[in-house]
Specification:
The protein is of the alpha/beta class. Helix content is 42%, strand content 16%. It has a single domain, classed as Aldolase class I (TIM Barrel).
């Protein structure tokens, strides 16, 4: 859940996994959000058709908001509006981000994928989204985060004021290496929602690691 006084360190963002049914994810998300501090939940479309994605997002948004957590739809701004999401994540180019910021920022969170290079990230950052995201949805297949995502997150956190989210790995312990970059947020998906995982326990463990190891932003 979203703590009344959020910790002054890297915080957790959850990413809905691919191929999850609406009912399964609704239950898993509720369990995860009861495990401790979570800043937001991002719901990627993963190529689903509009009707299926809207049905999935509607249930997930309700669960997130009941726990005081921001729900961000990645993909379709129409779906984001229909399900009353708190934000939209844009995976397109600079022009797509600029359009979303112009139309929606102020009414909802507008985040964006930051690309694969520093130049791509800077182009996106020029449009001043509410955050940039380093990594790819659904590609957290190794225990540790991708080295490129870590490098971009470290560089961005040192140079740019816009907050960043860095995709973690498939193990909860990967939050430590993301936090060490100075990134404001670490994203987990498989580490929390993989089959056989206890989502509540995973979120509790992630927060315990962050409480113990993450740098404090005020220091």
């Amino acid at each position: 859940m979203n703590a009344p006084n959020p910790p002054d360190r890297c915080r957790l963002v959850l990413i809905a996994p691919e191929h999850a049914s609406a009912a399964e994810f609704e239950a898993a998300l509720g369990a995860a959000l009861s495990g401790g501090d979570v800043a937001s939940v991002i719901l990627p479309q993963y190529g689903d058709d509009e009707a299926a994605f809207q049905a999935f997002a509607e249930r997930a948004v309700r669960v997130a908001q009941e726990h005081g957590v921001a729900a961000v739809v990645a993909g379709d701004s129409r779906v984001a509006g229909r399900v009353h999401a708190d934000g939209l994540h844009v995976e397109g180019n600079k022009a797509d981000v600029a359009d979303a910021v112009r139309r929606l920022q102020g009414r909802m969170i507008v985040g964006a994928s930051g690309g694969k290079t520093r130049d791509e990230a800077l182009e996106i950052g020029e449009e001043r989204p509410d955050y940039v995201f380093f990594g790819r949805f659904g590609y957290d297949r190794t225990p540790e985060p991708h080295a490129r995502s870590l490098a971009l997150g470290r560089w961005w956190a040192e140079m740019i004021e816009v907050p960043c989210i860095v995709m973690g790995g498939s193990e909860v312990a990967s939050v430590e290496s993301v936090a060490a970059t100075g990134a404001e947020f670490v994203a987990l998906s498989a580490a929390v929602f993989a089959p056989g995982t206890d989502p509540r326990r995973a979120v509790a463990e992630a927060n315990e690691i962050l409480d113990r190891t993450a740098p404090r932003f005020g220091d």
